[in-house]
Amino acid sequence: MSDAADDRTATADTATADLEAVLASLAYLLTRSQEHERRTAKAGITAARSDVYLLRALAEADGPSRVGDLAARLMVKPSHVTRQIDRLESQHLVARTPDALDRRARRVALTADGRALLERLKQANITGLTDALDGVPEPDVAATVSVLCHLIERYVQRVRGSLLSEDDPTPPPSAHAALRDPVES
Fold it and tell me: For tag attachment on the chain, is the N or C end more exposed, with fewer CB atoms within 10 Å?
């Protein structure tokens, strides 16, 4: 390999290591339990972080969803989603309805209360981000969004691809759909 190629590889390795460190710090800051509790309390919300991701997945679905579809989207086991739905249903944030195609199955949809909760949390998050991004040029924010969307899409494709069994020829759900719902298992 030429010296120039070695330099490019070293630079790429350094940039990747720097990105990993930044993402680890960001993940830590965004998922700190106290911070989540502070933001949600400010918005009048008592739902757990993982419950919020499930609510977001339901909000972005094209109507009521099956538990298995939600589990696949969130990359968790269906039993985990079922427990979350039980919790959220007791808070009147989601409702189960019969599945028109399969009488044994149920579908889950957001209630008006669930949508209102998500809107309050979204506004609290936007306020926090606006404060944190004060002074950062809009083109830098847009570039960051673009890069992170590509990174998330590639990562989700890789994770979902590894979750598929050899016996299941069904392709994974669109990685793009997961861009707006960080995964917590």
Answer: N
